[in-house]
Design goal:
The chain has 605 residues and is an alpha+beta fold. The chain is 40% helix and 31% strand. It has two domains: 40-298, Spore Coat Polysaccharide Biosynthesis Protein SpsA, Chain A; 408-604, Porin, CATH 2.40.160.
């Protein structure tokens, strides 16, 4: 009973902290939005690109809507390998419209193909299922006067069906979109730092977009976020326009889940590295940093929210659940009130939608979490070689797990995915680290930017490790000796080769001494001094601690060398899941200020 109470307190505290962060964000953004500035538009200076795949149901309405604002010869429709009558409808409707037909390469590939045909200074990217309001203005003035480099528009979802459930899904999405547009984008508009120009409609400078397109990933369908982040990393400024675009939205649960889990949210996971890159860039607006830090916080804490909710249900804490539900409902009502003051009534069934929207948000939280696995699949299993490696790894993992069950926790497995940002050189890496241990031996594989494989073992009082970095073709070895004096464990080590985590190719000897103190069987503190006899002949002082309290555990530490370069790291975990982060100045004695954040799983069998 005592354990249940402690677990409940921990989960309740975690949820309270998360609610506090969410609540503060809602109140600040709702009360600090920028007023809309109207710009004129020279529509003859704009080319519209529409990427279409099997859009015969909606393409005609989109074309008719576009022809009201731009000349037909300024419209490019890219038929991305459609298997229906999309091309036929376009060709028959207006011969002046530029129709490009290509083999299917995805939305990003279709847009990039069409960019080579654009001759105007500005380009408007649009989905094939949109309708523009009659007085729609393309604000070219903002780009012409260099007040911005890209423009985001006010997107409103529409649903074709008229049943109760169709209306329910439309209004859920209407509130979700209105929060994003009228609260989020207005808030970012103050500093011209809107961090997502919706794929439904976005205005860009043609020359900039052609250059940035070369850096764009083509794997993820949530391409609009990546395109905007590339714009911001290139010192772009992105504003919000009230010109309204109506987009065809999913009309049922199945369609919406597919859009979010398969389409949108894997792109969100893919761009966490870009978030870090912008956060640590110099002269970035505070509001932009704040938004991106919150995005990372939300992604990292979603599993904790889910675990917390399941625990409260398991322990029958219905009053606490009702309280949390009520506070989130109040926040949604407050947001709805603020949006209503700006744009009038925008919801049908307003009371029902606000009462149920917390459940809708919970559903979206699950979608974002499941989308992580779709991201992993698209990132690592999109060619035959990766599939073969993954199949082999899966087979080995199942074999290891089966044997481990029989050998009673002889096996340990640790997987970690991290986003690493090189702040000074404006680079971002994604690092995967896999550790597999059996009794007193282990192996570990690390990807970018180190690309290394390690093997090691524990033999009585000795610990021996060997490491090969195939990117720098460097090999290193290290032997450590430790001796127990009660709770005190002094140690000494020697090594030779390319240092661990180094991007430098030089090899040289290293040595060091240290002292561990164990508070109990699991928690300890460690101090160490190491010396390199080569390269910069650096001397490094380091300290770290490991604390385990029941299901919660953490490891953290800091270091500084004789050149004054500091570093720190932390891992915080609950049972088998953990979050890690670190920061090092002049990492590896290079002009490389490294920051990283990641998520990991740690299992024992």
């Amino acid at each position: 009973m005592e354990t249940e109470t402690l677990n409940l307190i921990a989960f309740g505290f975690a949820f309270a902290v998360i609610w506090f962060v969410d609540g503060i964000k809602v109140i600040i953004e709702s009360c600090c939005g920028a007023k809309n500035i109207k710009y004129y538009g020279d529509h003859d200076q704009v080319t519209v690109i529409v990427a279409a795949y099997n859009e015969e149901r909606v393409i005609l309405k989109t074309i008719e809507s576009l022809l009201r604002i731009v000349p037909a010869e300024n419209i490019i429709i890219v038929d991305d390998g459609s298997k229906d009558r999309t091309s036929e409808i376009v060709r028959n409707h207006n011969s002046k419209i530029v129709l490009l037909t290509i083999a299917n390469r995805g939305k990003v590939g279709a847009i990039h193909y069409a960019l080579s045909q654009v001759k105007t200074p500005y380009v408007l990217l649009m989905d094939a299922d949109i309708i523009l309001e009659p007085d729609f203005v393309i604000p070219t003035e903002a780009l012409e006067k260099k007040l911005a480099t890209a423009v985001s528009f006010n997107i409103i979802p529409t649903v074709a069906g008229k049943s109760f459930f169709n209306r329910l899904w439309r209004n859920f999405q209407a509130h979700e979109y209105a929060k994003s547009m009228q609260i989020g984008r207005r808030f970012s508009n103050h500093t011209k730092s809107v961090h997502c120009v919706s794929g439904a409609a976005g205005l860009f400078c043609t020359d900039r977009l052609k250059e940035l397109a070369k850096k764009h990933t083509m794997i993820f369908t949530g391409e609009d976020l990546e395109r905007t982040l590339l714009e911001l990393t290139a010192d772009g400024e992105v504003i919000f326009s009230e010109s309204t675009v109506y987009t065809d939205a999913p009309q049922d649960f199945k369609q919406l889940t597919k859009q979010r889990v398969i389409g949108w949210w894997p792109g969100l996971w893919r761009n966490v590295g870009m978030f870090l890159k912008i956060i640590f860039q110099k002269n970035r607006p505070f509001r932009l940093r704040y938004e991106l830090i919150y995005e990372i916080f939300a992604l990292a804490t979603n599993p904790l929210k889910i675990i917390s909710l399941c625990s409260m249900i398991f322990f029958n804490q219905w009053l606490l659940i009702i309280f949390i539900f009520g506070t989130y409902t109040w926040l949604e009502a407050f947001i709805s009130y603020k949006i209503g003051k700006l744009n009038g009534n925008y919801l049908e069934m307003e009371i029902l939608i606000l009462l149920l929207f917390t459940l809708y948000s919970l559903y979206q939280m699950f979608c974002v979490t499941f989308a992580f696995f779709v991201f992993v699949y698209k990132k690592f299993l999109t060619n035959d070689w990766n599939k073969a490696v993954a199949t082999c790894a899966l087979f080995l993992s199942v074999s290891f797990a089966t044997q481990a069950q029989e050998k009673k926790k002889d096996w340990s497995v640790d997987y970690q995915h991290s986003y690493i940002s090189d702040i000074e050189k404006n680079r971002t890496f994604q690092n995967d680290q896999v550790y597999l241990g059996y009794k007193n031996i282990y192996t570990m594989v690390t990807t970018a930017p180190y690309n290394a494989v390690s093997i090691g073992g524990y033999f009585h009082s000795f610990i021996a490790t060997a490491r090969y970095q195939w990117k720098s073709e460097g090999l290193s070895a290290k032997v450590r000796y430790e001796h127990w004096f009660g709770s005190f464990v002094p140690h000494i080590f020697v090594g030779y080769g390319v240092p661990e985590l180094s991007i430098n190719k030089s090899s040289f000897p290293t040595s060091g001494i240290g002292l561990n103190y164990y508070f109990d069987d699991k928690s300890n503190i460690d101090i160490e001094v190491s010396k390199e006899f080569g390269r910069e002949y650096g001397l490094t002082y380091a300290a770290k601690a490991k604390i385990i309290k029941k299901s919660f555990w953490s490891t953290f530490g800091a270091s500084i060398n004789n050149f004054g370069h500091a570093g720190t790291f932390a891992l915080v975990g609950y049972k088998f899941i953990y979050i890690n982060a670190d920061y090092y100045q002049h990492f590896d004695f290079n002009n490389f200020n490294r920051a990283s954040v990641g998520l990991g799983l740690k299992l024992e069998f």
